Amino acid sequence: MKKLLTFINGYRKEAVMAPLFKMLEALLELFVPVIVKRIIDIGIATSDTMYILKMCGVLFLLALVGLIFSITAQYFSAKAAVGTSTRLRYSLFEHIGTLSYPDIDTLGTSGLITRMTSDVNQVQNGINLTLRLLLRSPFVVFGAMIMAFTVDKVSAVTFAVTIPVLSVVVFAVMLSSMPLYRLVQKRLDKVLSSTRSALNGVRVIRAFGREQEEIKEFEQINSELNLASRKAGRISTLLNPVTYVLVNIAVIVLIYVGALRVDSGIITKGSVVALYNYMSQILVELVKLANLIINISRAVASSKRIEAVFAVKPTVTFPEKGAKPDMTSDIAVCFKNVRFTYPSSSAAAIADVSFSVKKGERIGIIGATGSGKTTIINLIPRFYDPDSGEVLLFGRNVKEYASGTINELVAVVPQKAVLFNGTVKDNLLWGNSDASDEELYEALDIAQGLDIIASKKDGINEVLTEGGKNLSGGQKQRLTIARALVKKAPVLILDDSSSALDMATDRKLRNALSKLDYSPTVFIVSQRISSVIDCDKIIVTDDGNIAGIGTNEELLASCDIYKEIYNSQTKGGVANVG
Amino acid sequence: MSAEKAPKGTIKKVLEYVSKYRFLIILSLMLTVINVSLTLYIPLLFGSAIDLIIGEGLVDFAAIRPELGKIAILSVICAGALLAMNLLNNRITFNTARDIRNDIFRKINVLPLEYIDRHPTGETVSRMVTDVEQFSDGLLMGFTQLFSGVLTIAGTLILMLKINWKIALVVVCLTPLSLFVARFIAKHTYKFFNDQSKVRAEQTGVINEVTGNLKVVKAFNREKAELKRFGEINERLEKVSLKAIFYSSLTNPVTRFVNALVYAAVAFVGATDVISPYTALTVGMLTSVLSYANQYTKPFNEISGVIAEFQNALACAARIFDILAQTPEKPDSDNAKTLKNTEGNIEVISVNFSYDKNREFMKDLNFSAKKGQKIAIVGPTGCGKTTLINLLMRFYDVDKGSITVDGTDIRNITRRSLRASFGMVLQDTWLKPGTVRENIAFGKPDATDEEIIEAAKRAHSYSFIKRLPNGLDTVIGEDSGSLSEGQKQLLCITRVMLSLPSVLILDEATSSIDVNTEIRINKAFDELMHGRTSFIVAHRLSTILDADKILVMDKGRIVETGTHKELLEKGGFYANLFNSSFC
Questions:
Q1: Are A377 and A523 in contact (CB under 8 A)?
Q2: Could you report the predicted ipTM of this complex, rounded to two decimals?
Q3: Which CATH fold would you assign to the domain B346-580?
Q4: Rounded CA gap, B483 and B578, in Å?
Q5: CATH number, domain A362-371+409-570
Q6: What residues of chain B lie within 8 A of the CB of A196, using their CB?
Q7: If contacts are CB pairs under 8 Å, which of residues 500-529 in chain A contact chain B?
Q8: Which of A183, A359, A515, B194 is 20 to 30 A away from residue B473, measured at CA?
Q9: For B109-133+160-329, CATH number?
Q10: Are the C-beta atoms of residues B331 and B342 closer than 8 Å to each other?
């Protein structure tokens, strides 16, 4: 809740004004019985029609002023609620952006999405209603109690007993329903995850004819959500009937006590009527409050879930003011006894990895699936921190750099070709937002992507639908390569980025990459011997370890694993075909 | 569809959904009647109890005690009815929400691929989660407050009529004003709620895109830029939400103001009536009428509140029904054949197809695949290989021409049996959140562990599965957590190895797997597919050298056909492609 309060703080004025005006409105309502009493006592008693008309005019004025107060209150509370939730959503999005790779692996996408959508909506709703009613209800309830004491102290004791009992009931319901609402949101996460999975996996699900099973599974998850919602709802619905019975019992006691006191001549019958009316006012207010309580419980449950995300501090943090890279250093990248384990895994993904790479060298990384190739290159831009050992980039430990510096130093083409909504140009500008059109075309030329642009109606301004669904896998890969090239970073990493390219295009791409005018240090992760064969150095990985480092010739002479890969890909007279 | 009103029929469709719970609704209505009549009756009893307190020494205790006892019992009954009613309403609305979610999910599974490919995932997800949630909230409020509100109004009206018809007439005449105001506001807020839903969906789209690909965003240090994009939508959402919430929350104060007018009018008419010598209205009766006038107007407040909430709910419902109303994949024709023991003779005859019907793509495609043949498809990226797979699997239907399996047009074969005979491994590796075992057994849920392990060994995935923390029971999280792209591909291959299809389609299935493993996997596939037809899209020539037929595609057309040797001798497009790939 603390975090949430800081967000409301930005709307302090609105958050104070809303309940204040709401209270003023309630105060005006308290005048109504007084006016009516005057109509009866003065207007009717003296048969003064003009007086009655005048008093009714006052009633009208009270209503009008009340309306203005109330609209003001609604405006302030809507503004505070919407404003707070907007800031909350923004800063949640911002916070999620600061999380590092290991945190993303742990948190999961669906949970993050529900928190930013459904949970924030609940909080908004909760704030809005709280500001409108939370102050008003206790005001009316305690106001009625104080008024009761002015009427008859002894009878008013009933109020003093009833109100704490009612408070206990209200809080008990609220506290016991909160964890249930949290469960509801958690189950909602699962519904969301299931829906996303069904949409993303639609081809596989249909190919295997598994629609019915998926539906059944979803129905199961959905019915769990249903059960949780109903359970939470059940507790909340208890509030109204229970308070109704409690208040009526209080009224019965009140009337009986009142009867005794009237009988002994201490108070008048009119006082009993007044006391009864005050108790009724409390009931009406509690009914309103009961509806509010559900929303508050849900909002609190949701805000706790949101806070849980805020509480996750990025595992990989960067220094504010980072070190300056030593660009004169001869060594671009250096690994020293590096060991790394993924958060969800028990075994190390790589261990004892040491090597160093000179500036401008082209490094190939080859090895079996799951042998640690991607893990190694993920440590260079510090997506993860190693368990032990050091990763040096231009003479400094990567941990010493500010995140902006690393971004300037390293350009990555991830294994999975992901593009974003927007035009091709928008996507390319990710590499460098200041790049000119010529630079973009140049990058596209190197990435063999010019023909993609040529085939599109709007050229570089062609709009890509979600994730580039309107492109083929190879087209996407070439655009992601171009995106990285636009950056012109001194270190370029290609993580098996040409797997969907046809052989001819791949070859042209490699040729173009070797002639880059800014001569970056290039890492090429690949399955194909042909992609790495002419590299200055080839790193051979095997089961998380380095099995050999050297040129093609050196490795052929010394590394059995490399020899095996080489032979398997070059036999049958199709050497170097890849 | 006007921008200000929910499309016609939305309410009708909502009613169709809840009509399933007809019985529960009737029961809930009956309980409401009990609850409302007791709520109105109990104050009368209190009144008469108070009337027994006349003054000092004049209190009729003998009459008061049973009266109070009666009130206590009725209060409990009243509360019981309220509780039961609430529970029923809870059940009705949450079950309706569940039904709608189930229907959306079912719909997702029958929607044409075209719809799914064209609509952002986040948008559909937003309908499933947020819209259904808001809809059910509105529905719940409607149920709990609308009926009881109407009944309370009717009840108080009757009681007022009994006391003084003139005042009742004033009330009845002024009431429409309150309804008119509520309607006026509701009509105008619908637009804002609708806008809110739209912007919200757009925002969910961005959230889904960025959160789902957070690693790429971070790799390019684009957090700030994406935050800016998000912030822009967020601000738009703020504006429209503020409008929607503020204008809808006007309903309550404004109707309350109208009600206060009614109250003042009743006070005036009543008071002058008391003064007038021609009527029998007493001060006491005026007090009752005023308190009833007060009670009478409260449900109006509630109802108008419900109406505001309902506008939001309807806006959401309209979006939900929009997806439910989408035409599903054309259902299998009535005489559609079930494909059994597929031979695997496939014929593609003069097929035309394009995604965008204004731009011609695939034209006059012809080829045939005989049982047991291995067909390789090669060509530059974007040449139409993936499209061909879309057509073979009937994810899309051809525009012209036909595709036949064992002589039957695939449009005359049930989709299920067609797809069951085809095994497919796609470039895009999708695994469902679940255990490794569930994923491998996806196409054959009743597979034994021995079969699963056997398939895993053949697909060369067993060695890494063994090393996972819990082996086959390791849970693969959303987005497949820390599995490498190659490991995911291995699992996808294992999945298809287990289901043993009659026709196999491999679309770059081994692109992220190291070549040695790939060769072994291909060997396993060759053994497995002996006598069966297979289609292979690959860039690595080694995997297609021994194909019985190579289809060379370019720009949606087949430009050459033949074996590797024939095509090389021909010295055409393929030979160029092949030769250029020498380093």
A1: yes
A2: 0.80
A3: Rossmann fold (3.40.50)
A4: 33
A5: 3.40.50.300
A6: 121, 125, 208, 478
A7: 500-508, 527-529
A8: A183
A9: 1.20.1560.10
A10: no
